[in-house]
Write a structure and sequence with these properties.
The structure is a homodimer of 325-residue chains. With 325 residues, the first copy, chain A, is of the alpha/beta class. Helices cover 34% and strands 26% of the residues of chain A. Chain A contains 11 helices and 14 strands. In chain A, strands 3-2-1-4-5-6-14 form a 7-stranded parallel β-sheet, sandwiched between helices. The first copy, chain A, has a 4-stranded mixed β-sheet with strand order 8-9-10-11. The interface between A and B is large, with 69 and 69 residues. Strand 13 of chain A pairs antiparallel with strand 13 of chain B.
């Protein structure tokens, strides 16, 4: 059995706990939290909730610690820190800072003799894998990534910070015409506005100025100003009834040509009922790989690019060759 | 530079020659043929065409020999034979015989201290990778593979062997309704007939009995009897003008649920203007990986499951992390 610890018990931590149940060779050893452990009720009977401080001696009986924190402030600190003490997996997703994060985690993991896997999930993660495979196979071509239809938690948060907004949910939606042009092999140059639209469902506080809120949303720099944005005002009851989930997904495409100019298209897509639950499933599969690599004596920081696919599976290589090849 | 030899110069051999041109770190060292080398005109100036016998001493200056033969009789003999002498890659695609082929090639490659990669291409190959990744991430779900729209060379050959047929091309076409049901997460049980249709374009010999030919096609066991098959009679000129290429493609889907029952769909698809040219591009990318693994001291038989994605790329890991992760 691969013994998994989870650090942090938000949406992602809960998702990891559930994903472990779908893998008979894995068990949840403990949940670690910065909150008062007695205040954290988890879904699995008989598994302890412990303070993060318990990890510090490096003596917890874990094969892999999955760090379920946020990329803004948690992971840049936690992942290097705990990579010295345990095999770790994180879902660091600030693309621009991946090289720095990798360097810090790699040094710590090598020092501690552990394996660390960073930036795991679906983007970065499965989408990255598909970009890499497609680029290697079609050296002459163009890459496209579209996200959605799905809930952007960052954009939903940005709307909720506006004065007069009680609650909100924002969906990122790929533009079908852009997807169709890419699929047709036209290799279009697409602006931000041409690739995605943004759809907002907003609950106003009593007496709020709807027109002012709408204007503030659609003109918000970075978040909305570069997109065609629609704003819909609804009641809290409607929001709760119709927009409670965290669905997401997207498309990775590469179109290119062979040396004779023959067109080729590679497309990968995800349609996810729950973004955090799916991300968790990816993290758990890669935790298995990390445990194995560590058993083989590996150390240092890895990404999904460095891990042979067979390491993710509970089945032995002969079974995989017979049934999935 | 990675020096590639090609054994066999049919559609696949020609495709490999062309794919090498799209990879600046690779060069074609020689083409080996069982025919009279002077009768084989290749597309690359200054590269020798040699008899297969020249390979026997194991002294050809090659980093990888890509074996471009057929799965029925060539590869079961050639790949184990040459894996003793060189690093090799093949596209063995008889799924049921992969375990036997692996065992024979593995023994030979270990004996010779070489790396062999078998069953590379898109199915087996990229489709296999997607089945594996999806199975590891969604342990509870169902797999579907659809092929087409594309030319099945085996089925086209079967039609051409019928008395009264001068020429023919057969397209395998996925049934849209079945694809839609799978995408909707319904996990349907699909019969052979429900998944694919077969479309035949047939040129009759003068005086042939069209009705008899059509009946013989649609009733042919294994090839057509289990499918809804349409037969169209056309002239040789029409066949040459409209059905000259070898397009192919297909879809790999896995639909499943998280532990809470939330639906998830993973879909991968290829739309290929030329089946042999795309297969060749995959073989060349994996030849790079084989050369590297050999340089690292590896030996034995591998499949796409055993090779970390980064090995396929000409770019270094830091570049990949910065640009594709």
């Amino acid at each position: 059995m691969t013994r998994i610890g989870i650090l942090g018990y938000g949406n992602l931590g809960r998702g990891i706990e559930l994903a472990i149940r779908q893998n008979a060779d894995m068990e949840l050893a403990a949940v670690y939290t910065r909150r008062d452990p007695s205040s954290v009720k988890i879904a699995t009977d008989g598994v302890p909730v412990k303070p993060t401080a318990d990890l510090e001696a490096g003596t917890e009986a874990l094969d892999v610690l999955v760090i379920a924190g946020g990329s803004a402030t948690d992971l840049p600190e936690q992942t290097p820190h705990f990579a010295r003490l345990y095999n770790v997996v994180d879902s660091f997703d600030t693309h621009a800072h991946i090289p720095d994060h990798f360097a810090a985690v790699d040094a710590a993991a090598i020092e501690g003799g552990h394996v660390a896997l960073i930036s795991c999930g679906w983007d970065p993660g499965l989408f990255s894998l598909n970009r890499l495979y497609a680029n290697c196979i079609l050296p002459e071509g163009a890459d496209y990534t579209f996200w959605g239809k799905g809930v952007s938690q960052g954009h939903s948060d940005a709307i909720r910070r506006i004065e007069g907004v009680a609650d909100a949910k924002q969906y990122t939606i790929p533009v079908e015409a852009a997807l169709d042009a890419v699929r047709a092999g036209k290799q279009p140059q697409l602006t931000t506005r041409e690739k995605h639209t943004r759809e907002c469902w907003v609950v106003l506080e009593e007496g709020a100025d709807a027109a002012a809120v709408e204007r503030e949303i659609v003109e918000m720099p970075n978040y909305f100003a570069d997109y065609d944005t629609t704003v819909n005002f609804i009641t809290q009851e409607e929001l709760d009834a119709n927009h409670a989930g965290l669905p997401h997904g997207g498309f990775v495409l590469r179109t290119g040509t062979s040396a004779t100019g023959t067109p080729m298209t590679i497309e990968y897509s995800l349609k996810l009922g729950s973004n955090p639950e799916f991300t968790s499933s990816v993290l758990v599969a890669y935790a298995r790989a990390v445990a194995r690599l560590s058993q083989e004596g590996a150390a240092g920081c890895k990404t999904v690019f460095d891990i042979a696919p067979a390491y993710l599976s509970p089945n032995d290589p002969a079974t995989l060759r017979a049934h999935l090849l």
